[in-house]
Amino acid sequence: MRAYGHWIDGAWQAPERGHYPVVNPATEQVVGEAPEATPAEVAAAVTAAQAAQDGWSRTDPRKRAAVLERMAELLIEHAGKLTALLQAETGATMRLTTAMQLPTAVDRFRRCARGALEPDVLPIAPRPVRASPLAPGGLIGAAAVRRPVGVVACITSYNFPVVNLAGKVGPALAMGNAVVAKPAPQDPLCCLELGPLFREAGLPDGVFNVVTGSGAATGEALVAQPGVDMVSFTGSTAVGKKIAECAGRSMKRTLMELGGKGAAIVLGDADTKVLESAIGAVGSVWSFHSGQVCTAPTRALVHRSLYERVVTGLRDYAGSLIVGQPVDNSTIVGPLISAAHRDRVEAYIAGAREQGARIVAGGTRPALRPGFYAAPTLIADVTPEMPVAREEIFGPVVVVIPFDDEDEAIRIANSTPYGLYDYVFSADTGRAWALAARLCSGNVGINTVQRHPETPFGGFKESGVGRDGGSFGLHAYSELQSVVWPS
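Below the sequence we write its predicted structure tokens.
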């Protein structure tokens, strides 16, 4: 167990307010101690970033690319230590941690290394302009140039702490910005470990800083800092609204990936192959990080002719999953992040039962001690108005809702405040393509829950503002400047 400091201006800084414990969700033992930030420490991190940003923005893009590529290499070199720490503080299963927690972060840094070399100037054809009281006429040339935003506050979620941070820091640094990171309070330790690695990778001091805290105060202080030019946030819609309100007072740029309530629409033409794909996709809510994923297809909207068949398939799927210690390679479903979150998930299940829904699988707490476990739960006979059908639970809970025609399916899918990721399962992909156009969702998967890393990722409605992913993510961390001259 280690007590960490803040990472500010290329060095560890002992916290004035001391530390708070970071707890392993599976063992309920303390993994390490994270620093509690004061407003003055947050301000110091922002000041360091401001001082370093101009020099970094003028650094040759090839050098920025080399730093990001070296960072990816260092993550691989330190994979043993970092993977163990990530697993312990997130409670993710070992198979998920080894396959996606660190490797995906490596991929993101490497993609952003290439992105640093993408053209940042868009030439605009010269155009003849008539004389005016403002200036003489002539042939006017122009270009649109991508410039760094400045200092970016990167506030991340607890489910994939390093992956999420890499998805923000990578494009921000590639475009010449400086960063102050504020990881989620539940599992910030591996994010703090990135500080010395960035220094070893050749990043100048002050370009990457990390401050942490056990509550909301650290993030609030960071967002309110006058020296912050942009806020990139992943987390709940409720917190996102507060950030938007604060950022709007000084017109800070925002990029926000917020909550989701994914609908998986299973059309009546689905054949056996498509049905098996749909059941496996919806089952990923349980098997993939215990449902703590914003893109999860937590609502199965099934044509009435296939309804009981899908319910039975999902019941069998849930019953096949092993819930247990995440370090056991046979475990599929590990714990939730905290006791408070487990209690919240259980309250949703209890509410659905009281409202007349049918608990087909799960619904009771597994007999596992210690740890914050919730059983894979399937709820049928749900109506679209129930809270379990409208609100983000962020746990291993699937609801199944029948529909009679496409119009009804679209109405139900679009009836929540969210619009992050929906799915359509059909034997006719052309029909699914047409249906996707009617979904108020930033992303639609057709017969798959797989993602494409180059697509723009973000949400409609209360699921967010802006897009990241691929070149779209690079552009999100820049401002467009028009430069005009006489030809």
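The chain has two domains: 6-258+463-486, 263-454.
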